[in-house]
Input
Amino acid sequence: MDLHAVSYWDLIFAAAAMALPIFISRYARLGLEKDLAIGTVRLLAQLLIVGHILAGLFAINRPLPVLGVLLVMVVIAGYNAAKRAEQMRVRVVVMATGVIGVVAMAVCAYMFYVVIGVEPYFNPRYVIPLMGMGLNGAMNAVAVGARALDGRLRDGRERVEAALCVGATGRQASLFAVREALKQAMVPAVNNLMTAGIVQMPGIMTGQIISGVDPLLAVRYQVVIFYLLTVITVLSATTTILLLADSYFTKAQQFAPPPRAIRRGLSPR
Amino acid sequence: MRSLRFENVSKSFAVEKDRRVAVLRDVSFELTAPGVVGLAGRSGSGKSTLFRLVNRLADPDGGRILADGEALGGGSVVDLRRRFVLCPQRAAFFPGSVLDNVTAPDWMTKRGEGDVARAEALLERVEIPPERWTSEPSALSVGQQMRVQIARCLYLSPDLLMLDESTANLDPHIAGRLLDDLARWAREDSRLLLHATHEPDKLRRCDRMLVLEAGRIVADGPPARLLDDERGPAAAILRAEAD
Output
C-alpha cells in the first residue's frame, strides 16, 4: 500500500483549518481564540520536539538515555496530576510521582516482556510511546481520583464525623468517599472498553492502519494498549486514593483536611 | 466512669493566617456520675467545641480533661469515643436501612441476632415505628432522623452521652418522653448525660446546669435556681436566644 507522507507544507495547510474554530470562538465571544491559537502552534512545536527526541533515541539505541527520558516523563506526569487535582502540596506531588512511576513501570514491564516480548529490553520504539500512554492514563486517574476524594470528604464532613463519633477509624469513616472517588476515576476507563471500535476508533489503531499496518495486527496492539491503560488506571487510582484518604486524619483519628491548595506554587503540607 | 473534670481548658481556631479566635477560655468544672447536666449558652458560645474536646474530635490548646482522674488521650481514641459518645447537632447517615444505621458502630464485627434485637429495642425506645426500620433514613422526618441518631449512640451503651442540641427539632411531647427516659437511663445505670440546649423546659429536667458565655463558664448550679433568677446570666442568655 502507498503511504502518503505528510510534509511540513501539509502541516501548514492542516493548521490553516484551525482558523475556523478560532473564528467561531471570536464570533460567539467565547474568549478562546488566544488559547486556540497558542494551542495550535504549541501542539506542532511540542510534537516536533518529541519527534526529534525519539529519532535521536532510536539512532543512539542505548538504555540510559531511554531511562532518562522515562524519568523526566514520570516527574512531569506526577507534577501535572497534582496540579490538575488542584492539590499542589509537596506531599501530593511526591506521592503522585511515586504512584504513577511505580504503577506505570510495573504494568508496562509486564506488557513489554511477557505479552509483546520487546527486544532489546529498552527498545525505545516500543518503550517510549507505550510508557507515554501508560503515564498519561495514570496521570488522569490520579488527578481525577485525588480531586474526587477531596470533594467527597469535604462535602461529607458531617458524615465522616458522625462515624468518628461512634468509634470508627478514619479509614472506616472515609470509606464512602474512597468508594465514590474510585468509581469516578475508573468509569472513563470502563466506558472506553465498552465503546472502543463502535463509537470511537482508537487513535493508535487508526494511525497504524493509515501507516499501512495489517488492520488485524493493529487491532491486537490496540487491545493490549486498552488492557494496559485499564490496569494502570485502576491500580494508580486505588493506590492514590487509599494513600491520600489517610492524610485527611490525624493520628488521633481526627478529621483534619489539609488547607485548600494555593493555585500557584507548592504549599508545604 | 465516675467523674469528668475540665482543668483550665482553652481552645481556639485559626480564622485567617495570623488570626485565631478563642472558643473556650480557661474552662474548669467537674461532673460526677450519675447525673443529667444541661449546658446552656448562645449559639457560638463554645458548647459544641466543649463536646468535641471530650470525645477527642479535637484537642485542647491548653489545660487538661480528666476522666476518673486520668487525662484523655492515654488510650485508644476509638475506645474512648465508644465510651464518651457525642450525638452531633445534625443527623448524618451511612448507606443502608434505619436498622443498619443503628448497628453501624459495629464497624469491625459481623452483626449478630442479639445485636439486631438490641437495635430494634432502641428504635422502639426512641419511638420509631417498626414499618420504618427497613426504610432509608432519608425517608424519615428530621425529628425521626435525629431519634435514629440518638438510638445509634445508645447502641454503644456509653458511659457518657453528649446531646448537642439533638432534641431541638423533636415534637415537644416526644422530646419530653425521650429526655425523661434518658435521664432514668443515666441515673439508674450510673452514667452521665450532658445535654446542650437553650430551651428552659429541657434544662429544668436536668440535675445541674452550666452556662457558657463567650467561651467561659458564667454560671453553674441547679437549673431551677439559675433559670428563676431573672437578673442572672442564664435567664439573660435564654431570653436573647428566644428573641
